[in-house]
Amino acid sequence: PSSFSAAFQEHLRHLRLLDFPCRLGSWVGVGRAQLWDMAWSCHCLSSLPLQGKSCHNARRRPRAEPAGLEEAVPPGEESPEVLLELLRDQHSPWALPPDCSPQDQLLREVAVLAPELLHGSRIFQVFKSLRMVDKGVEELDEGLLQFQQLEELILSANYISRVTSAHLPRTLKVLELCFNTVGDLQDLCAQPPPGLQHLGLGHNRLCDFSQEKHLTVDFWPNLVSLDLSFNSLTDLLGLVSQLATLPNLRILLLQGNPLTLIPTYRGFLVDSLPKLFILDDTRIWPDERLQFHSLAKQPELARSEARVVVSIGEMKGLPDPEAFQQPEVGPEGPAITYSYRVTYEF
User: Fold this and answer.
1) 47 pLDDT exceeds 60?
2) What local confidence, expressed as pLDDT, does residue 76 receive?
3) Could you give the CA distance from residue 170 to residue 128 in angstroms, rounded to a whole number?
4) Are the CB atoms for 161 and 180 separated by under 8 Å?
5) Helix extents (H) in the chain
6) Where is the segment annotated Disordered (predicted)?
7) What sign results for the dihedral spanned by CA atoms 248, 250, 251, 256?
8) Fewest Cβ atoms closer than 10 Å to its Cβ: which of 72, 138, 249, 288?
9) Is the C-alpha dihedral spanning 144, 166, 131, 11 positive or negative?
10) CA-to-CA distance for 41 and 26, rounded, in angstroms?
11) CB 247 within 8 A of CB 224
12) Rg (Cα) of the chain, in Å, rounded?
């Protein structure tokens, strides 16, 4: 699917909320004896390869109900406790795959304990956190606006190149978009969620936005954490002039950008952003601030150029020149010349 809504519906089908043991499906109301017979048959089929038993033997095995079940629930119903046990047991044929999120498990348990909350459009009100990672999403459509209680949205590892802020719930506090193809912030900054505290844009295609002031307090008054790592940012001075307007910024990730090669990169940022607490996953201590004190007043040191020193300690797998070359004999004795060429691409 290319749209968020299509990917979300496919995700719900993957969770099988309409199937046993969730209580949204047509199986609800089936007699308890029939239900347990159906459940046991599914269990035998799913566990057959692991136990190495024939289908004939599995069918002849006596079907035992949990102790006290017949006393705990009325006739024709299955207890929520038994259904939850089938969902939570990692060896159960109805257990979720290991890569599913806690939110997925919670949603299935809600389908057992309070299925009325998931009927129709009510299901969107259950979500406060939604994780849609590697689901093939290309477009954030208006379907997102149905999540009126959503506070955390994780859309990593998709194919999103454009983020239309008008389609984002206004309740968002966390928006994670790492490993996508976002190239600019113009659409995102049109109507950004006012209470957003974390914006994750690492591993995208962002270039310098010195002309468009998209990272200022005008758009992100409550931003605490910002991830811009592994993009193509080169303008350190232009970036700092915008980030300095964010009053609540405490965590900043810029590693993997060309501007981090500037020799005074870290010191200039530390001194320019006195409220910053963590830079590139490393805490800023008071002695480091003292070390770089007044560096922000010398912008000429933050030039857009870098020097890279490469030291080669050992090289393996090179051909031995003696195998195909005879040393030349001269007046000063034999001499062998070795020539190597190493190329680096940035």
Assistant:
1) no
2) 47
3) 12
4) yes
5) 4-15, 32-51, 55-60, 69-72, 80-88, 102-113, 123-126, 236-243, 265-272, 286-291
6) 54-75
7) positive
8) 72
9) positive
10) 18
11) no
12) 30
Instruction: Give the count of alpha carbons within 13 A of 82, CB side only.
Output: 17
**In contact, 135 and 158? CB cutoff 8 Å:** yes
CATH architecture label of 161-304: Alpha-Beta Horseshoe (3.80)
pLDDT in tens, 208-223: 865 678 999 999 999 9
Structure tokens that stand for 255 in this block: 């590693």
Residue range 107-122: average pLDDT?
Answer: 81
CA distance 198 to 176: 8
* Helix, strand, or coil (residue 70): helix
Q: How far is CA 199 from CA 107, 114, 147, 260, 294, in A?
A: 26, 33, 19, 20, 29
pLDDT in the model for residue 158: 97
Query: Helix 80-88 vs helix 102-113: angle between axes, to the nearest 10 degrees?
Result: 160
Average pLDDT of the segment spanning 205-209:
86
Q: What residue spans define the domains of the chain?
A: 1-25+79-128, 161-304
**pLDDT score for 223:** 98
Q: Which residues of 160-174 are buried (b: 16+ CB within 10 A; e: fewer)?
A: beebebebbbebbbb
Which pLDDT score is estimated for 302?
Answer: 67
Q: What per-residue confidence (pLDDT) applies to 306?
A: 62
pLDDT score of 49 more than 50: no
83 HSE (CA, 13 A, CB side): 25
Amino acid letter, residue 87: L
User: Given the DSSP bridges, would you call strands 328-330 and 333-335 parallel, antiparallel or unpaired?
Assistant: antiparallel
Looking at this protein, which amino acid is placed at residue 339? Answer: S
Cα separation, 233 vs 231, whole angstroms: 6
Higher pLDDT, 287 or 92: 287
Q: Is the pLDDT of residue 61 over 80?
A: no
Q: Could you report how far apart the first and last alpha carbons of the chain are, in Å? A: 35
